[in-house]
Amino acid sequence: MACSKAATGVFSAALSQVFQAFGDGRLEVVPVAGRLPHIEQPDATFAHIAARMEERAPLVAYE
Question: Among 10, 16, 44, 50, which is least packed by CB within 10 angstroms?
Answer without folding.
Answer: 10
